[in-house]
Specification:
By secondary structure, this protein is of the alpha/beta class. The chain has a single domain, classed as Alpha-Beta Barrel (TIM Barrel), CATH 3.20.20. The chain has 13 helices and ten strands. The strands form two sheets. The protein has an eight-stranded parallel beta sheet. Strands 1-2 form a two-stranded antiparallel sheet.
Length: 349
């Protein structure tokens, strides 16, 4: 299976054309596939199949993912759009080795460049918002990196619609480089971004790269009605709120998954293809991020570009999970401090 170049899509207003699937590298390294050579083979297969954009982050296995991507791209760097991210904690001891401050961004980009084995990053993204850091401080640092030639474009990840708008306005008013992309959590089971985030991205001409289109494995086809459900222990350990089957909200997800599996069977497609094709159907979406851990995972997703969902199938999906609905709050990927810190909701101490 090879993705035809004619199916490539414009990345926002950058003029770049990217494949409808982005290779996510989160699972390369100790939290997923610790075999570097096998991970490199998967990357090479994705590139040979026509995927021309790879997304990773400094925090994925604390730099190991970036190192694997760097090794895989040796001799092929100019053919690939490399995206990585900054924000996550890179030290258990240094509280400043994380976040969106100028100090950390300027320092950490050098480490990402070293690990990736390149002199520039095509798309450098803020992995999450950091409300206590002035967005102008952050955009100023990122703009300096663009002007220095170390970064080509900048983007955001899992920003609230209001934060996307603020970044755009601050960039315009302060003459900073503006974010040109947004990575949003988007799947059939997590549709809240349809309410405001995706229309906002369209309004500002942003490329949208949805993460977790398979809902962290829930839409992988492994959960079938009448069969015992087995959840990956690594996911349960890292993200129990999203994967613990004993939680009521996850029980609701499982019932939705069973209905979606029935729908996929009736439509004659795999649940993986149903899920990915659904995300790619939205006009705001540029390229869906897939995160294979094995070659089998990759191969099962590559030919989704050939899948077209009928109106009846899309309408049935809307009945199972209504537009704008996210079944489990944990799948939103970001909870603003005003919701998680009680002190921000109380007048008294």
């Amino acid at each position: 299976m090879t993705i035809d170049v004619s199916s490539y899509r414009l990345l926002g207003t950058t003029g770049l054309k990217v494949s409808p699937l982005t290779l996510g590298a989160m699972m390369f390294g100790r939290i997923g596939n610790p075999d570097h050579e096998d991970s490199i083979r998967i990357i090479h297969r994705a590139l040979d199949a026509g995927i021309n954009i790879i997304d990773t982050a400094d925090v994925y296995s604390r730099g190991e993912s970036e190192e694997i991507v760097g090794k895989a791209l040796a001799g092929r760097r100019d053919d690939v759009i490399v995206a990585t991210k900054v924000h996550g904690a890179m030290s258990d001891d240094d509280p400043n080795a994380q976040g969106n401050s100028r100090r950390w961004i300027i320092r950490e980009v050098e480490e990402s460049l070293r690990r990736l084995g390149t002199d520039h990053i095509d798309l450098y993204q803020l992995h999450r918002p950091r409300p206590e850091t002035d967005i102008d401080e952050t955009l100023s640092a990122l703009s300096d990196l663009v002007h220095a030639g170390k970064v080509r474009y900048i983007g955001t990840t899992t920003f609230l619609p209001s934060q996307v708008v603020e970044a755009q306005w601050v960039a315009e008013r302060r003459h900073r480089e503006r974010p040109v992309t947004e990575q949003a959590p988007y799947s059939i089971l997590a549709r809240e971004v349809e309410r405001d985030l995706l229309p906002t991205a369209q309004k500002y001409g942003l490329g949208v790269l949805p993460w977790s289109p398979l809902a962290g494995g829930w839409l992988s086809g492994r959960y079938r009605r009448g069969e015992a459900s087995t959840h990956e222990s690594s996911r349960l350990e890292r993200q129990p709120a999203r994967h613990d089957p004993s939680l009521p909200e996850n029980a609701l997800k499982l019932e939705a998954v069973h209905q979606l599996q029935d729908l996929a069977d009736q439509a004659g497609v795999s649940l993986v293809h149903l899920a990915l094709a659904f995300v790619l159907e939205h006009p705001a979406v540029t390229s869906a991020i897939i995160g294979p851990r094995t070659m089998e995972h990759l191969e099962s997703q590559l030919d989704v570009v050939k899948v077209s969902l009928s109106k009846d199938v899309l309408d049935r999906i809307d009945e199972i999970v209504p537009p704008g609905t996210t079944i489990n709050e944990a799948d939103r990927g970001y909870a603003p401090p005003v919701l998680t810190d009680a002190a921000l909701r109380r007048r008294s101490a």
